[in-house]
Amino acid sequence: MRKYRTVIIGMGRMGRTRYDAMKKHGGFDVVGVCDSNEELLSDYDINRYGDWKCCIDQEQPEVVAVCTVNAVIPSVVCYGLEKGCHVFAEKPPGRCLEDALLMRDALGRCEGQVLKFGFNHRYHYGVIEAKSLIDSGFLGEVVAARGVYGKAGDLRRQEWRNDISIAGGGILLDQGIHMLDLLRYFVGDFTLVEGFTENLVWKNAAGEDTAFVTLKTDSGKVATMHSSAIQWKHKFDLDITCTEGYIALNGLLTSTQSYGEERITYYKRDLELKSGKLGNPTEYTMCFDEDRSWDFEIAEFYDAVSGKRSLVNGTVDDAVAVMELIDRVYGKRTAP
Ligand SMILES: NC(=O)c1ccc[n+]([C@@H]2O[C@H](COP(=O)([O-])OP(=O)(O)OC[C@H]3O[C@@H](n4cnc5c(N)ncnc54)[C@H](O)[C@@H]3O)[C@@H](O)[C@H]2O)c1
């Protein structure tokens, strides 16, 4: 297996997660790690840097993984691309649409390089099953979807997520972005977007603790989303209504184990009522007990870098499209 010379910029929680996934995959030779907080690098017996530009210049990698805070992501992505590297970057793709467009332009000036963003929810087993059920046509066509994704945030805490100049937004940009990406994945491209954000509990926080969004495609498919930082018991629910049945995704396996068991339930429409009463039919449920999303995601990145298959998930077009939706909810803005 060809190994790509790789550096990881930003060695907080996600940097460590990506490091482990890259090691496990085997196709990345991680030669350098960088974090502005160099204390975080002491566990790594490879070249360590406090300055990301210096890290890229010195190591001359083929691959750069960008796992910094949101505000730093666009500069590192653009620099990595400029230096001829393939780049894997965390979500969100910067703080606003303008940032995402900057990265798209930078990729446009490259030839044969890969830029992928970390929308890892597409690689959860429940989501993979739902996608293959839908693509099989078994349940007809998707016409509507309703997503709820929420966590118990503490917007008083001194951390970068609560600093709007670094994070760029509140819960919608931080966590809701994953649900928006899934709604696009299952329903299609939305052209009509309406929504609002509120500070219902954390009144003085810079970012919102609540967002409600309604979406519609040109062909009339609809979706809604509730993104919350005041979901005191963590929740991930996605209902997908199809012409011939439905799919419900409930729970999500994460490192905190707080979103409950991950499961997919589906029902195929049966108007002869062989499968039970109308409105309370027999359903089929599958449960999953392992989160392989990080592995599958890095494998897709590797395959794109090595030319085995082209990128399908987390493309720059996905990044721009989802940031367009978010900017329309927040109202037009430029990078803080
Ligand atoms: N894909 C997912 O599901 C997922 C989950 C959590 C976080 N994220 C995203 O990953 C990114 C990092 O989040 P995290 O939870 O790991 O946060 P974190 O605070 O644990 O890590 C961020 C790291 O970036 C470092 N950093 C900041 N500025 C830097 C700079 N100029 N140069 C080098 N390092 C710098 C910080 O010191 C910190 O260690 C964020 O964009 C976040 O939105 C994605």
Walk me through what this model shows.
- The protein is of the alpha/beta class.
- The chain folds into two domains: 4-120 and 295-315, Rossmann fold; 125-252 and 256-290, Dihydrodipicolinate Reductase, domain 2 (2-Layer Sandwich).
- The chain is built from nine helices and 16 strands.
- The strands form three sheets. It has an eight-stranded mixed β-sheet with strand order 8-9-10-7-11-12-13-16, with helices on one face.
- Helix 4 runs antiparallel to helix 9 (316-330) and helix 7 crosses helix 9 (316-330).
- The protein is globular.
- The mean pLDDT is 95.
Helices and strands, with pairings:
Blueprint: E1 4-9, H1 13-25, E2 28-34, E3 47-49, H2 52-59, E4 63-66, H3 73-82, E5 86-90, H4 97-108, E6 115-118, H5 125-136, E7 142-152, H6 164-167, H7 171-187, E8 190-198, E9 210-217, E10 222-228, E11 230-242, E12 245-250, E13 262-268, E14 276-277, E15 280-281, E16 284-288, H8 293-305, H9 316-330
Parallel strand pairs: 1-2, 1-4, 2-3, 4-5, 5-6, 7-10
Antiparallel strand pairs: 7-11, 8-9, 9-10, 11-12, 12-13, 13-16, 14-15
The chain binds nicotinamide-adenine-dinucleotide.
